């Protein structure tokens, strides 16, 4: 066999293995979307109809009707947007201070930040719940939003690493021109850190959108449910309405996929950055 | 010279004080910039941390103030059968899931690192499951693994195997969970891929000249140089496995059924704290978890000296 033939063989074999492996990842996904569009009589047939005939778009309308979908969508969106805003406002500011400003106790505080990163959330979960309970915030979405405005250690850590990589020369030049520290941060350093801030914002956005334990703890009032919580409740009450549950699952996933296709590079870079530098 | 020194005496002092002022104001700016986190660190981390230690020695419940009972919570846990069951379930999951996720993760990353056409499409396909919210993953897999009408048993039926009842079976419930967790390993694959990209091509060229085959290249170059990334994913995997909650909770409506085979540590902790309102007891559980995770992390770090290789070192 000559080298080009061998290469071609290798490539075909590669494709074959890849297609087989992809099947494991993509079939459940296709199944979710397919079931969500099936008329009820096709849901339980085997061998399966992969493409529903006809498309039962009304499943989506039914699912949306079954639970107060719009209310839950708004609840989820509000929590997601506000907590992401909190992270994007607070974390770069703190990270910048850790990376570029000098002050007493900075290193100690940064060490403390790294240390609390190691604490499992379950340890602080109960006292935090009691604090929010004392403040009368249990049953509202505030406990899922407020902490983000005060910084998240992991994000602060990632952003600090990013700021450390930016040269000091810009900062010094701006200082010569008499710019205040705030202006240097807001108009020079923060725009330079945009890719990292975007990645961190995206992490929080995903975390809030898909969060389950947080809403389970704090959203005790059915009016304040998020989509994750609503889907779980729906499942435990109407466990056999597969097409409707798949419809809700699809609705929850689609916004993330759209976001992924627009911000693919940021997604991948963010994960890689946290993996390599973290 | 002396005159100059004398002339300069005053100005230098002035410079010194102004420098000190500048330093001071700089210090204040730094603290101001960090102030949200200064508050957050105390309010949302350090104070709850201390309160949680204290709670673990009390019979505190949200319904009644409770009292200091020393080590009683910890003693009671040792004879709490469900607690012990939740530990064995959690260890079972971690022992199988973490190594499997590393083997599959590295394998997939190597596949996705081949230089062939259409790779971006494949990479996207592998990543898609990680975009599905956990609750939706649970609901989807309940459907796929449905004993009567699920896709998986349907396929098994076609090739003449009568499939188990998966999540309904005490024996198969944890393997099912491991299986569906492996579906979402796209994120670690991305990290492995980045690690593979970082391996210098010189090594492979040198190996080629020496006539090394694929097997030798993989086990003497690729895997050793991937160990820093494997190390990272190992630490994260262990931490994540011990904190497993959303999937088993959704799969079992919080009940850990059948026969508590899916009652994981954090689920039982949640039940104690928020279903039975035994917050002191739950806090003791949280501290045990914290200590165990810390010990494991330290052990992995300690062992890493023996098996993690960095390039150029």
Model description:
The complex is a heterodimer of chains A (278) and B (313). Chain A is mainly α. Chain A has 2 domains: 3-56, no CATH class; 66-276, MetI-like (MetI-like fold, Orthogonal Bundle). Chain A has helices spanning 3-36, 40-43, 58-66, 69-100, 106-117, 121-134, 142-145, 153-164, 169-176, 181-192, 194-210, 213-218, 227-237, 242-262, 264-276. Chain A is flat and about 70 Å long. In chain A, 42% of the residues are buried. With 313 residues, chain B is mostly helical. The two termini of chain B are 55 Å apart. Chain B folds into 2 domains: 1-56; 79-307, MetI-like fold (Orthogonal Bundle). The model of chain B is unreliable at 1-15 (pLDDT under 50). The longest helix of chain B has 55 residues, at 2-56. Chain B is built from 13 helices and no strands. In chain B, helix 3 (81-112) packs antiparallel against helix 10 (214-242). Classes of the chains: A mainly alpha (278), B mainly alpha (313). Chains A and B meet through helix 1, helix 4, helix 5, helix 6 and helix 10 of A and helix 1, helix 3, helix 4, helix 5 and helix 6 of B.
In short:
The complex is a heterodimer of chains A (278) and B (313). Helices cover 75% and strands 0% of the residues of chain A. Chain A has 15 helices and no strands.
